[in-house]
From TrEMBL:
Stored Gene3D superfamilies: Tetratricopeptide repeat domain (1.25.40.10)
Name this protein carries in UniProt: Tetratricopeptide repeat protein
The UniProt record lists the keyword rRNA-binding: no
Pfam families associated with the record: TPR_16
Keywords assigned: Membrane, Transmembrane, Transmembrane helix
Organism of derivation: Pelovirga terrestris
Region entry Disordered, spans: 15-36
Length: 451
């Protein structure tokens, strides 16, 4: 190092001397020994090496200029595409916004109705329960409104209808906000409401107190409105109680639920039940259900005809006759009831009253009810009016030419008029088409032998 320092001092000394010499002055020749000439190239090489080292050191320690990687516009775009890391709470909010959980709308799955005297209860079943419900009675509008926000209606849902003079009907009306249950009542009738929730069964019970058993405040005629909408919680919410806090009272606490008997069945339901009991051979129960159906709806003809058949099988002819006569007051032109009363009168040999019933206006067309007119032909024979009987049988056989009993009736009517040839042909045809009972077939053969 001392050698290098000496060389540096020598070099610096020469730099100071060069400016003092003239630009045109020629260097003074130096005469030295041959050894000094060999030392100069070595010193020059060492000086050059030292200069290179100095330049390299200065360049290493000098500050370096930093060039931007991207321009400002590109940097702003990059920051927008790659935002800075979020705090945990902000990150959770971002995830919820970008991938929201699917929304499940409440679904009304069934509507049940129970009624007793002046009290009525609606039982609404959901899947799942709605977040809240609003219930209000509107006497001036003749409605009790149950508003179920964001609730949808299950397709094919059957809504039972009450049997009360003050309640007209119950309807479901989907709206943009959800679903409305509307109980239409008589106008200006104050209706008190109560409610109860069963979260385990996902059911909401709405009690309606009709006039007659309503509280005095309701009877005064004031509009009854649930001041605070009924809140239906799908899941129980746990609350943290402080030492001085009092337990929260649920707004769903309401009067005791209405305990009623099931609604009475309709006339159609009673008829269907009675019909099934007839098929099962339970005639006593069928008689009771069919009788009740007619009590609810005396004009239900199918139930009346079925009840008449049951009474006849039970050999209760007097009651069957009363049911027939009552039916004719509601359906005087009904051909089945007319035939039934005519058969009953024929069994009593009351031929003219039976014919009178059958020939009352309006008469059914012959093609529409041939059996009706065949019964008329039988009564004509019993009354001795053989010509009218034969003519009617001939018309009937044009409709059903293979009816052996009608051929037999025609043969008897012709024989009674003394028309042996026509009677013989009719008897033979009755045998040819077959279908006669053995005793009637024997009778026909005897008449052929006679003729």
């Amino acid at each position: 190092m001392s050698l290098i320092n000496d060389m540096l001092r020598d070099l610096e000394q020469r730099r100071k001397q060069e400016p003092q010499q003239g630009a045109a002055a020629a260097p003074t020749p130096v005469h030295s020994r041959p050894g000094k000439h060999r030392l100069m190239p070595v010193l020059g090489a060492l000086g050059l090496l030292l200069m290179l080292l100095l330049v390299a050191g200065w360049s290493y320690y000098l500050p370096r200029p930093v060039a931007p990687d991207v321009n400002l516009a590109a940097a702003g775009l990059q920051e927008e595409l790659n935002p800075s890391p979020l705090e945990p709470a902000a990150l959770e909010t971002s995830i919820l916004k970008s991938d929201p959980a699917p929304l499940i709308h409440p679904l009304l799955t069934s509507v049940n109705l129970v009624q007793e005297d002046q009290r009525l209860q609606l039982e609404l079943t959901f899947n799942p329960l709605p977040a809240h419900a609003e219930i209000r009675a509107l006497p001036q509008q003749g409605q009790v409104l149950i508003r179920l926000p964001e609730t949808q209606l299950q397709s094919g849902l059957v809504v039972p209808q009450p049997q009360h003079d003050l309640i007209r009907h119950i309807s479901l009306m989907p709206t943009a906000a959800g679903l409305d249950v509307i109980v239409a009542v008589a106008a200006e009738q104050p209706i008190a409401t109560s409610q109860r929730l069963d979260p385990l069964a996902s059911m909401l019970f709405i009690g309606l107190e009709l006039p007659g058993t309503t509280p005095a405040a309701v009877e005064a005629g004031a509009e009854v409105i649930i001041r605070t909408p009924v809140t239906v919680s799908a899941l129980p919410v746990a609350s943290v109680a402080t030492p001085n806090s009092t337990p929260a009272v649920s707004p769903l606490v309401s009067p005791a639920p209405i305990r009623t008997q099931p609604l009475a069945e309709t006339d159609q339901q009673l008829y269907q039940r009675g019909l099934q009991q007839v098929r099962e051979g339970n005639l006593g129960a069928a008689r009771d259900n069919l009788t009740t159906a007619l009590h609810l709806n005396p004009e239900l003809l199918v139930a009346r005809l079925e009840l008449i058949g049951v009474l006849q099988r039970l050999a209760d002819e007097q009651q069957a006759l009363r049911v027939i006569e009552e039916g004719l007051t509601f359906h005087p032109a009904q051909s089945e009831l007319r035939k039934l009363i005519a058969h009953y009168l024929l069994s009593l040999q009351q031929y003219q009253p039976a014919l009178t019933r059958l020939e009352a206006d309006p008469l059914p067309a012959l093609a529409a009810d041939p059996d009706y007119h065949a019964l008329r032909a039988v009564i004509y024979q019993e009354l001795g009016e053989y010509s009218r009987s034969a003519q009617l049988y001939a018309r009937l056989l044009e409709q059903r030419p293979r009816e052996s009993l009608w051929w037999l009736g025609l043969a008897i009517a012709l024989e009674q008029q003394g028309l042996a040839t026509g009677a013989r042909d009719a008897y033979r045809t009755a045998l040819d088409v077959s279908g006669l009972r053995p005793d009637l077939e024997k009778f026909v053969r005897e008449r052929l032998q006679y003729l």
